[in-house]
Structures are given as structure tokens and as C-alpha cells.
Specification:
Layout (H helix, E strand, L loop, with lengths): L8 H15 L1 H12 L5 H28 L31 H20 L9 H24 L10 H4 L9 H19 L12 H20 L7 H29 L4 H15 L8 H25 L7 H19 L18 H31 L6 H6 L1 H6 L18 H8 L2 H4 L2
Amino acid sequence: MTEPVLAANGDLAWLLAAFVLIALMFPGLALFYGGMVGAKNTLNMMMMVLSSLAVASVLYVIYGYGLVSGPSVGGRGFVGNPAQYLGLIGFETDDGSGSAQGAWTAAWFILFAAITVAIVASGAAGRMKFTSWLVFSAAWLTLVYFPIAHWVFAPDTETGSGGFLLNDMKIHDYAGGTAVHINSGVAALALALVLGRRKVGSNRPHNVPSVVLGAGILWFGWFGFNGSCALGANFLAQYVVLNTLLAGSAGMIGFGVIERIKDGHVTTLGLVTGIIAGLVGITPSANAVTPIGALAVGVITSAVVATCLGIKNRLRVDDSLDAFAVHGIGGITGTLCVALFASAATPAGISGVLVGGGVSLLWRELAGIGIVCAYSFVLTWVIAKLLDKLMGLRVDDETERSGLDSTVHAESAYEIPTATVGHPGGSSLQRAVAATDPVAQAR
């Protein structure tokens, strides 16, 4: 990925539209995750997702953009210089080109960072203190996401060196198979292991229609996620949007076939999981595979994810919303598909093992996967353990049993209570509503 040069207003218009599409992924993920947890934890899950955007935005403006896109400290390719774009000073003035490319890249990468940490919330559903989540997400972005994003997304420039995975090892990762999906999936697993399994509550989704709606919005947003990396309204944007559609469709069909063979029926939850798996798989390879290759990526990724979901259930790891299987394993599979199915006829112009290329790309992709997995898992584990010692990560048993919506947030997803556990009389807003509600007054 290179720094964008926006040559025309049409390019900027597409990137702004893509920005809006990516932003829609946050309510989409909130609906998706909120429907998959129990009814007593729906709002807490949604708040964890939406708060990720707020935390990432603040940190990115202060120092995150420099850590990701600034010249590497010491030229080692490990992390960018946070002082380079401190507070985005200088971004408030138009340079006269009409592109405002500095402001654009900052805004664009904010959303990538935010959606990554939001996915990690899967490992904490129904049992993590909300204040601890806010502190964890800030620490995780700073110590885990920002460095890995620098490795993968920061190119060498005339003013300084970029990330080592992109420039030295030359891995191919079009839109974040490593930095976004593998990173978030592995981190969700580490966080889930530190927190431990839930003691009460059901692992079954309480609102499947919400899950379906969320998945649809995520698919919609993914066109902007992958399409924006084309850096303009051009042929590459058309190409990756098409491949994104094909991989999601193939993933849905592939997961359904696996379910039909294994269990004798096809489930709605399985189909939407297949969609997300296919989209995860195509993220690193959208510009490197043919349309037929995109179909293969979708089917293969969904099949691998479906298999890993069964293994996870036997291991009894409480990654409640399957981020490790869908994003972690799906991201690994999709990244490996680059080395297998990449075609020189595509915009990326690289060849995979199965279409006449050598094994060099395969080894580079494997090395990149291993480095990201190891760094993300270890650092996430250390951050979670330290915060658990300092402030505690997990709610008490009574709070977990009652549900975090009522006990932590004094709210309910499906009714406005007049009293909540630990919050007599509810919140000020709820008391104001109850004062004008004859039904509530009659209780």
C-alpha cells in the first residue's frame, strides 16, 4: 500500500463515500455481536463495539497516526515516529491541490484501527468491566495494533523507512488480513483465555434477525473497506469490489454446504457466518486473485472456519462470538490463499504457487502470519494480565448472573426498567421517562 495521490475530485468523492461505508460497519458489528449474546448483555456488547470508534479516534489524532504512518523510529521498520503527526498539526489547512490527502489518510486509518479493536470484544462478551474494556482497548491499540499496522501498511518514502513486513519481507496483504483480521482474532483468543469462561448465561444468540441485519450491513461496508484501498475511483476499485461480492457469496454457499453435510440442515447463523468468513478471506487477496480465484477463496475460507468452529467448541474456549475462528483462522487462510491463487493477470501482478509462481511468496506469507500471531497473542496476554492485577477485568458473579446491561449500565435492550440491580430507581433518563409513562406509574 502506498500513500494516496488523489488526482481528481472523483477520486476524493469515492474515498469519502467509502469512508461512510466503512463507518457503517460499526452499527453493523454492534447489531451482529449484540444479537449473538444473551438478551441481558446486548447493550453492553453494542457499547463495547461503538466505544472502540471513540477511543481509536482520540488516540489516532494525538499520536496514533504517527505510530502507524510516520517514518520508522531508527529505520528499523518496527514502529513509526509518534511526533511526526502529533495532534495532526498542519492538517487543518488545504494545501491547494484539492486532495487533502493527509487528512484523508488519517481519517481512513482511524476506522481500520477502530474496527480491529471492536472485533477483539468477542473475547470479553458478558463478563468484562466496561471501564476495564476502555482502558484495555486504549492500551491494545497503542502497543499492539499501531505497531502491526506500521509493519503492514507503511511504505518506504523519500522522508523515511516504513514497516518491515511490507518493505523488507515484502508480504502481500491488500487490505489487512494480517493487521486487522489475524491480529484481532488472535487477540480475542488471548483476552478470552485471561478472562476465563462465563459462569452463567447461554452461549446461544438471542436475536438472529439482528445478527442477519448486522451481517448485511457489514457486507455493505466491506465494499468500502476493500474498495477504499484502491485510493481512487479507478479500475482497481471496481475489481476489488467485485471480488468482495464474489467471496462473500461463495463463503455463504460453502458454509451452507458444510452444514448440510455435517448436520443435515442449513442454519441462518451458519450462512451469515459463511459470509463474514468469505469476506475475511478475500481481504488480503482482493487485488491478487481472479474472479474465479475469489470464489475459491470464499469457499475454502468458509470451509476451514466451519471446521475450526467445531474444534473450538470441544476445547471449551469462551471466545463468545468466534472472532478467533472467523477472523483469526479466516485471516490466516485468506493470507495463505494469496500465495496459492494469486495470478499475474490481476492488478497485483503476482503469481501464486498453483498458477505457476514459486514458493518464495508462500514462505513470506507464512513468516508474516507467524510474526503477527506471536506478537499479538503475547502482547495481548501481557496487557490483559497487567490490567487484571491493577484494576480487575472481570465483573463479579452477581453482576454476571444479572446481566451487564442492568447492573453496569442501568438499561435494558427491550424495556425501560423502573429499577435495576445496583441502581435503585434506574438512571435519570429512565426516571424522567417513567414519570410520564402511565404504565410505569401503575407498576
